[in-house]
Each structure stands twice: as C-alpha cells, then as structure tokens.
Amino acid sequence: MHVHAFTEEMERLAPPDLAEDFDAGRIGLIVEGKTKIDTICCALDATPSVVKRAVAGHADMLLVHHTPLWTPLTSLTGQTARLMRDILASGLNIYVMHTNFDHAECGVNDALADLLAFENSEPMSLGIVGDCTLTINEIGRRLACPLRVWGKIKKPERLAVVGGSGFNPEFMAEAKERGADAFLSAELKHSVYRGAPLP
C-alpha cells in the first residue's frame, strides 16, 4: 500500500476536522518515511522501546495515539534526537490519530463504552454516557488498570467516559445533565475535583 492510500484510509476513519484545536499540526503523518507500506505497528505512544520493536519487526508505519513531537522543535538533542535517529534511519513513518480518533465513530470512546457494556448510550461533546451495570472492581478489571474513586459511589448506574485527560468541568457538567451519576477519565487535577459535580 502506498503511504498516501494509508493516509486517506486513516482520514476516512478519523477525519482531521474532528480534532480539537490544540491538535493542529500534531495529527496525521508527522514523520515521513518509506512510501510503500507493508507492515504496520500500533501503539499508544512512540516511545524509544516501541520504536525499537517496530524497527525490529520491519514496520514501515507506526500508528500512535499521542504524537512524539508535542512542542515545536528548535533543536534535535537528547531523548528526542535518539528517538528520531532510529525513526529516520529505518525509514519508519509515524501517523498520529489523537483527539480526532477520540471523537470518531468507533473511536476511543466508543471502544471504552463497548468494553464497559454500555446500554442506552449517547454521545457527548467529547465522550459517551450510558447505562452501566458493572461494579467499580469489574470496571477496573475490564480496563486492566487501577481506579481511584473521588467521591462516594459503589456502583454507577449511568456512567460517562472520556478517553484520555477528560476531567474537564464542562464535560462533567454535560455528563450530569445527561443523567450520569459518575464520570470516568484520567488525570484529575485537585482544583477540578474540588468543584466536580459527579464522583
């Protein structure tokens, strides 16, 4: 497959115009390598170990959720230089699908809702709210990660999920308006927790 055909297919799955404004210039083909794509690797992040495994697996494309180049570069030094050295030397392409994939149909939030067996779900501006019959322990088991519960709830009946760093007061207020009695996301700041309308 030609790299342009791959790019077109990714843009069909998660159109760039779905991305949040802060992702401008940080999604899509962010490192250009070989033009012919035979082997594709997928990961959450393009860490040094992920890149080494992709290169060892003769990958032509590494598809990730988070860009390895978040801030504009004025020099290539340190860890960024080491990472880019392996990427460029191997001809590895890196394609990023971040908030456009969070918003996309069948994207990150839909996958979370499916994993947690949501029923009667509805989309939010970012994320999904739905009926959830799982206990907190079962939610943690299905997500394969520890959960920290802020507030009092034993078993949510209607749960809102936002993949990534979604603890935003506006998202939480929207979830409450849509009947959620709990909110699940990552990276909760203390200042947000203090005013949170939901556990």
Task: Describe it.
By secondary structure, the protein is of the alpha/beta class. The protein has 2 domains: 3-101, NIF3 (NGG1p interacting factor 3)-like (Udp-n-acetylmuramoylalanyl-d-glutamate--2,6- Diaminopimelate Ligase, Chain: A, domain 1), CATH 3.40.1390; 105-194, Udp-n-acetylmuramoylalanyl-d-glutamate--2,6- Diaminopimelate Ligase, Chain: A, domain 1 (3-Layer(aba) Sandwich). 34% of the residues lie in helices and 18% in strands. It is built from 8 helices and 8 strands, in the order αββαβαβααββαβαβα. The chain has a 4-stranded mixed beta sheet with strand order 1-4-3-2, sandwiched between helices. Strands 5-6-7-8 form a 4-stranded mixed beta sheet, sandwiched between helices. Strand 2 (40-45), helix 2 and strand 3 form a beta-alpha-beta unit. The protein is elongated and about 50 Å long. It starts with a helix and ends in a 5-residue tail after the last helix.
Concise synopsis of the structure shown:
The chain has 199 residues and is α/β, with parallel strands linked by helices.
CATH class of the largest domain: Alpha Beta
Global shape: elongated
Helix content: 25-40%
CATH superfamily of the largest domain: NIF3 (NGG1p interacting factor 3)-like
CATH architecture of the largest domain: 3-Layer(aba) Sandwich
> Which structural category fits the helices and strands?
alpha/beta
Order of helices and strands: HEEHEHEHHEEHEHEH
